[in-house]
Each structure stands twice: as C-alpha cells, then as structure tokens.
Amino acid sequence: MIDNDTALAILEASEARRAERRRFLRMAGAGAAGLGSLAMLSACNDDNNGGTPTPTPAPAPTPTPTPAAITDADVLNFALNLEYLEAQFYTYATIGMGLPAVATQGVGTQGSVTGGRAVTFTDPVVAQYAREIAQDEAAHVQFLRGALGGAAVAMPNINIDGGANGAFTAAARAAGVITAAQTFDPYASDENFLLAAYIFEDVGVTAYKGAAPLISNKTYLEAAAGILAAEAYHAGLVRTVLYRKGLTTPSLMLIESAGKISDARDSLDGASDDDQGIASPDGGVTSNIVPADSNAVAFSRTTGAVLNIVYLSKSALVGGGFFPNGVNGTIRTSTAQP
Fold first, then answer.
1. Region Disordered: what ranges (predicted)?
2. Which of 62, 168, 203, 224 is surrounded by the fewest CB atoms within 10 Å?
C-alpha cells in the first residue's frame, strides 16, 4: 500500500534540484531586497533633502483607473496552476494518489482533485518515463511555491477524471478521438496515458514560452526558461513514444488521434494554425517531433489561449474543463476567440 510518505518522497526526488532551488531563492531574495532598499533610500531623500522640507505639491486631478499591471508573481502563479494540474495527473497515474495537502495550500480557495488512479503499465519503458516526469512535475510545484513564498496560490479544483463527466472525456469527444457515446479513460492503458500526457505537455511548452516576455526579473526568467526546457524534454519524449507506437501498431490509431487532439487545440486557441501533430498532416508517416515554424522555432500561446484549452472553450470564461471553477490568481480569464 502506498502511503503519504511516498507522495512526499516524490516532492523530494533529487537533492541536486533542491540545492539549485535554494540557490535561486537566495538570488531572487537578494535582488528583491536590493530593490526595496533603493526604493526606501529614494523615499528618504524625497522627505528630507538636506534638511529642507519638500513643498507639498498641489492636488492633481484623479486619473482614470487603468488595469493593474501583470507582475512577475502573477505570471509565476499562473504557471503554478498548470503545474498543479500536471503534477496531480502524473502522480495519480504512477502511484495512485496525488500531492499531499500541505503541498497545495496557499492564497485563495484550496480545491480538490476529481478522478485519478494508478495506471497498470504494460510497457516498462513507459512506466519509467511516467515516474520520472511525475517527479519533475512535483518538483516544479515545490520550486514555484518556494519562489513565491506566501504569495503562492492554493491548488484550485482540478478534474482529471476519465468517466462520462470527466474533463478527459470532454476533450477526447471534442477532438473526435471518441464518439459522443464513449468515454476516454487516461488510466486504462499505456496508450491512453500517453495521449492524455500529450494534451498537457505541448500546452505547457507553449505556455511558458508565451509567458516569458511578461517576466521582468531576470532570475525568475532564467528559472522559467529552465522549467520550459524540462517541459520541452517531456513533450518531445511523449511525442516520440506515441509516434513509435503508432508506427509499430497502426491499429491503435495513435498518430491519427494525436493529430485530432492537435486540431482541437488549434480550434480553441484562436484563428492561427500553429499546433501540429506528431506526423506529417498529409497522411504520410514522416515524423514531426518538434512543432515549430520554418526556422525550427517553437510557437507561443498567450495566457488567455492557454486557458481556452484547459477550460475546453473558445469563450471568455473563468473556469471549465480541467479547472471546473477556474485557476487561482490574477490571470484566470480565457480569451473570447473567433
């Protein structure tokens, strides 16, 4: 029987990673302290310029309110919501239980997880890959929570169920992978697990790349780039294994299903046609492991477009799909798409 100690062990999978996170937090904390000191010195100079009181300025007209600027903390919390989703999916799939409650507390309403169970893997390679990715995603949650400190949002309600009312079934039906009368259980087989992982990993890569320009602190930006690289490794691995299994056993229709999922994501996130399947779209078997442009540069998604996909809607909403009540934090509304 798997106990809570096993879940905690996943959060602490690598001493080297924890050491790197501590180094990052020290650097980020020093940078924030330095900025605070400069601001304080500036305020002191304004209040007492060589002993001469600063004249009180004339009252200015009340300006028109403008939307609050997106902060680095807002961006990191947006990423944390996505990492909660991935970490819960992978930990349930590999050990049959999710993250411990202490690892999901924070600002906002703490949610729960609907669905999730261990996959009975038949391919030992897939099982090993799944365990490694589970450790990585749990580490991402721990890392972002450490970077945010008391500003970290709590995990929102998450739906990773494979039943008739589950988010995976809704996504598979929308993509045409299954019919309206069928259900899609991501925990039923190695292949279903890989297709479910394919949904998340590709979106995670484009989300981090799209969020990069929103981050102003270079230390945070470097950390986000590191997570982006890890997610890209995961995505490439999942795409590769799906492609290989699809070639070996064409009857599984894995290449075709991945293409349908890609098309569904494209239909949700706007008018652009950036998303790509794992093989050439002309019905051939040429691999397409890296979804990129003609310069081999991966594409980006805005935060709103990312939420379109995880909410499973083209409308401007604050919840749905894998996040029934929405994500926690400032960035939580999907974009109204044409």
1. 46-67, 265-286
2. 62
Q: Report the 3 state secondary structure along the chain.
A: CCCHHHHHHHHCCCHHHHHHHHHHHHHHHHHHHHHHHHHHHHHHHHHEECCEECCCCCCCCCCCCCCCCCCHHHHHHHHHHHHHHHHHHHHHHHHCCCCCHHHCCCECCCCCEECCCCCCCCCHHHHHHHHHHHHHHHHHHHHHHHHHHHHCECCCCEECCCCCCCHHHHHHHHHCCCCCCCCCCCCCCHHHHHHHHHHHHHHHHHHHHHHHHHCCCHHHHHHHHHHHHHHHHHHHHHHHHHHHHHHHCHHHCHHHHHHHHHHHHHHHCCCCCCCCCCECCCCCCCECCCCECCCCCECCCCHHHHHHHHHCCCCCCCCECCECCCCCCCCCCCCCCC
Between β-strands 52-53 and 48-49, what pairing exists: parallel, antiparallel or unpaired? antiparallel
Closest CA to 141 of 93, 106, 96: 106
In the prediction, which pLDDT does 296 show? 93
- Predicted TM-score of the model (pTM): 0.82
- Give CA–CA dist 39/42, Å, rounded: 5
In degrees to the nearest 10, what's the CA dihedral of 246, 250, 252, 255? Answer: 40
pLDDT tens track for 166-199: 999 999 999 999 999 999 999 999 999 999 999 9
Provide the CA 321 distance to its chain's centre, in angstroms: 14
Q: What are residue 99's phi and psi, to 5 degrees?
A: -65, 150
Structure tokens given for 150: 């008391």
